[in-house]
Amino acid sequence: MAAVAAVLLVPTGALADAVSPESGGSPNANDIHSLYRILLYVALFVLVGVEGTLLYTLIRFRRRRRDQVPAQIRGNTTLEIGWTVAAALVLVVLVAVTFVELPSIKNPPASGPDGLAVARDGTLYASIDQPSPPGGKALRIDVNGQQYIWRFTYPNGAYSYTRMVVPVNTTVILSIRSQDVAHSWWIPKLGPKFDAIPGYTNKSWFKVPRPAIYRGQCAELCGRNHANMVATVHAVPVAQYQAWVSRQKQEIQQANQQAVQQRSTQSPIPG
After folding, report:
1. Distance between CA atoms of residues 213 and 99, nearest Å
2. Which of 22, 62, 216, 263 has the most CB within a 10 Å radius?
3. Is 100 helix (H, G, I), strand (E, B) or coil?
4. How crowded is residue 204: how many other Cβ atoms within 10 Å of its Cβ?
5. How far apart are CA 10 and CA 151, in angstroms?
6. What is the CA radius of gyration of the chain?
7. How far is residue 199's CA from residue 180's CA, in Å, rounded to a whole number?
């Protein structure tokens, strides 16, 4: 029973990849995973060193007889300077490693030679913009959070709900926003969470190297049906993506035309 209770109490997202964030879907997710592991190993080294020294001291210098008075020591200058310098060196190493890894996490890379090449459209945003990948080539998709569904709008005007389709080996830059309440875009294997806030455009990116399907959901409590606000990213070959987005646009246009025709043929309601 205790084991079952522990499983229910511990969130599965916190145990992604056992002890670190999920990875394997995009370079930025992989770099976050690597940085997290490095920091974790350094922290574990410090933990073992400090706790090991504490346990050794407690055992080595414990009182062995009831009438024994342990040695009364009033400080050790060499030891105190040593652990202060060691702690400072650990912080320097962590800062250096973090700043080395951050550019590859934040800045989108170039699309691969077999990826989809889409020129930047020059749209301006009233927010801190995501840096452009080298050469300015990327597929830009608008992600709009709505209670309780995600809407994805593609450069040709096509859109889809819940299921995002992207070409492989292509840098995909997301413009993330909300039209009602605060949401949070999160596909664990493709990178970190990004808030979708009304009136603000947030940016993220990913680059999927091979065909795959990745699942996620809104990570911000946004109302009674928050748990149903799921999303999937389908990475497909470039030719398949181009055929899909073209077909999607045509089907939307046809549906709009049919809706107009139906409204025009309906008889007006008598006053």
Report:
1. 31
2. 216
3. helix
4. 23
5. 31
6. 27
7. 9
Q: How far apart are CA 176 and CA 142, in angstroms?
A: 6
Distance CA 196, CA 220 (A): 9
Residue 114 carries which side chain, given as an amino acid letter?
D
- Residues 53, 252: Cα–Cα separation, whole Å: 68
Record the tokens describing residue 8, joined without a space: 């229910």
Can you tell me which residue has the tokens 């105190």? 80
195-208 residue pLDDT tens: 999 988 998 899 99
Cis (ω within 30 of 0) for the bond into 148?
Answer: yes
> What tens digit of pLDDT does each residue of 44-86 get?
999 999 999 899 988 887 777 777 776 777 778 888 899 899 9
| Domains (range + CATH), the chain | 7-63+77-106 (no CATH), 134-263 (2.60.40.420)
Give the phi and the psi of residue 22 in degrees, each rounded to 5.
-65, 155
CB 123 within 8 A of CB 201: no
The residue ranking higher by pLDDT, 211 or 16, is: 211
Between CA 193 and CA 216 the distance in angstroms is 10
Q: How far is CA 41 from the centre of its chain?
A: 22
- Looking at residue 83, its pLDDT comes to 87
Bridge-partner residues for 198, per DSSP? 178
What DSSP string runs through 228-265?
Answer: G-EEEEEEE-HHHHHHHHHHHHHHHHHHHHHHHHHHHH
Q: Check: CB of residue 178 under 8 Å from CB of residue 198.
A: yes
Q: Looking at residue 180, what DSSP letter applies? A: S
What is the amino acid identity at position 112?
A: G
What span, in angstroms and rounded, lies between the C-alpha atoms of 237 and 228? Answer: 29
Asked if pLDDT for residue 2 goes beyond 60, the answer is no
SS3 state at 203: strand
